[in-house]
Amino acid sequence: MELTAKHFKANASKALVDAQLQKALGNVEKGFIGKRQKSVDALPEFDALRDSSRDIKNHVLEHLDLYLEEYEAKVTASGGIVHWAETAEDARRIVLAICKKANARTVTKGKSMITEEIALNDHLEANGIEPVETDLGEYIIQLRGEHPSHIIAPAVHLNKEQVESDFRRVHTHLPEGRDLSEPVSLLSEAREVLRQRYFAADVGITGANFLVAETGSSVIVTNEGNGDLTQTLGKVHVVVASIEKIVPTLEDTSQILRVLARSATGQDMSVYTTFSTGPKRHEDPDGPDEYHVVLLDNGRSEMIGTEYQDMLRCIRCGACMNHCPVYHVVGGHAYGSVYPGPMGAVLTPSLNGIEETGQLPNASTFCGRCEEVCPMRIPLPKMMRHWREREFERNLTPSVARYGLKFWAFFAKRPKLYRFAASFGIPILSVLGGSTRRFRSMPMAGGWTRYRDLPAPEGRTFQQQWAQRETLKQEAKQ
What we know:
By secondary structure, the protein is an alpha/beta fold. Helices cover 52% and strands 11% of the residues.
């Protein structure tokens, strides 16, 4: 499955008429929004924690070089090794070298958007190493040859009937008549298959929700426990994380954890929150013999000091897409990028360039719900607007849109002319709308009228109504 952000509009059109997808997307609103609100309402200090979490991350970004150096020193002191990767290619090369040194033929993987970003699975497979996703959602989409459609619920675009079909197609050992019609039976089947893969793997690869500078620890947050098995059963544990995941102290980590699960799934805390510090010690009964951390930049350092720096506060909770009306109707795959939804509409152009991803910042109604629910108070609409401005400045916007905006700007810059045109044009449009007060078609508005009628303007303009209001206020004073 190829990721093509350039084709967002075409992808979205297909998604809108995909009955299976539309059925599955109904679970996003049902499964996330209400649970988040209930959890937030039960914590009076939630907004104060958001402010504190924002400030912690802002502090880190202002001193990122110092915290990265401190983190590396603590990892080294605990017996681990830190590898620096400037690009995705560097990260792939480093991970492959670690796997080859361990003579690994199979690696297990915990859920990790960073490994999706660097296309690690494809690279390992091309070099004769089999990656096995152990998160249930990731495992399902791996069977289908797809990418995640959501950053915390990778298979949210699927229905259980589709999952059952994939299990029956791939799990050839299934006895005839085995019941896989319910989620519990599907989970049991996946657990039975994956349990064998944990013991066969020589290397376990995870991402990291946080990297703690104070202790050199990596932190993963899961609901299935697969991450724990991935990082403790193999001989080698490899953490792949981006540089902005640094948090100063354990106390800071605890604060942010209190807003993470509530924003993501509506839980007070995820079922498993696991801190890993270095390889197995002499007295430890289990754990990896080697502990590696691959720190990826991949364009993030270039975001520091720009209008997009706030995006580096993101903790990947998924709340923005859970509440996004655009995501609700097109799903994650339509975005054609590793990171979908509002956060992807900002981050993807930062990583891949606006030339390749210009349609994504336009995939927004600017309703502001994403910023309203973001636990790190990231101003996503503002940054999407900045990307739209850059797209326009570089003449990447479609010509019809550019000329339309220039035509409107001509009048908007000349208030008297604007008022005259509005007072002259609106009554005409109102009459042309007929008794239905609607247009079924209109030149240059086909993108709207192809799917719905366009309401005809009625009554006075806003400026006329405001002037009348001010006049009435003055008369009332007299």
